[in-house]
Amino acid sequence: MASFGETVANLLNQTAFANLYWGNYVMIAVACVFLYLAIRKGYEPLLLVPIAFGMLLVNIYPEIMIAPENSSNGVGGLLHYFYLLDEWSILPSLIFLGVGAMTDFRPLIANPISFLLGAAAQFGIFGAYLLAILMGFGGEGAAAVSIIGGADGPTSIFLAGKLGQTDLMGPIAVAAYSYMSLVPIIQPPIMKLLTTKKERAIKMEQLRDVSKLEAILFPIIVTIVVCMILPTTAPLVGMLMLGNLFRECGVVKQLSETASNALMYIVVILLGTSVGASTSAEAFLKLTTLKIVGLGLAAFVFGTAAGVIFGKILCKVTGGKINPLIGSAGVSAVPMAARVSQKVGAEEDPTNFLLMHAMGPNVAGVIGTAIAAGVFMAIFGV
Length: 382
What we know:
Elements: H1 2-14, H2 22-39, H3 45-60, H4 78-87, H5 90-102, H6 106-110, H7 114-120, H8 123-134, H9 139-146, H10 153-162, H11 166-181, H12 183-194, H13 197-200, H14 212-229, H15 234-249, H16 253-260, H17 262-277, H18 281-284, H19 287-317, H20 336-348, H21 355-379
Helix pairs in contact: 2-3, 3-11, 3-17, 4-17, 5-10, 5-15, 5-16, 5-17, 7-19, 7-21, 8-9, 8-19, 9-10, 10-11, 10-21, 11-19, 12-19, 12-20, 14-15, 15-16, 16-17, 20-21
């Protein structure tokens, strides 16, 4: 009987109930909220479902993220090895490859002024950087946090790894992906506050046709120009443009399909679960995390506002030919931000189609955020 009692006691001591503390239950509840938003509300489910499930797993079984040197048998946890691919910048770069293969750059080529709108939306990043410095973050930490303003999860992970801010990577990545999924909620009030009904109802002229040659040359030229000026952006910009070249050149259909489908989804699973698994209660429930979430929101709001305001300026300069709403798509949440521009514009006039016009600043925002990351790496000598 004594042996039976000891066996039962050992089994009970091995359950999660016996080893977790209140913080783990808080994070489990947060994971369930994320799953609800993804499944019930449809907020970026491809990202939020794996992130939330990784969060769930690590807070039930923390050793799933244990490093080999800390384990009893010298073997690390499953998601630890996934997470190493984040730290080594492999998964963020592959995500950019897939995004490039999935995205049509023609709206940007057809309307080069979109580059200015994409650039204006990066104001949120640099504004948040200064704010983060004032809140006590070091230079590298402030840069890693501020890049959330680009609403670009892969770039946020990439920059945090390059700047050696791996202890902040979990909160930064979760904040970035959360704000990406909440674009339809966060952006419309800002857009409506800064524009008039008349401006929101502006119809833009149909974009010109872009030739196949232009579409092929664009990723090559952008790679040469951007990477010559900021070589450290090569992993992101290079992969983005390589994916787009796969799409446009017409001779590697198999590579384009693989990059935009099978490979993309495999990488999303690995990246999402590993990002979620970086949010153990011990690592996440800190004052620093609240600062990061707040700064990320401020950066995102500033970036959206800057894009819309610059859109208003261009509207005046062009005599009302540009709808300011497309400026909000300058944050690089592709294609969600462009869809929000379309939705808000259609609320004023159902016959107004802004989606393709908004895709120009949206694509420019992806490139702009990668360039902003490169600027920070250059500043800190990475």
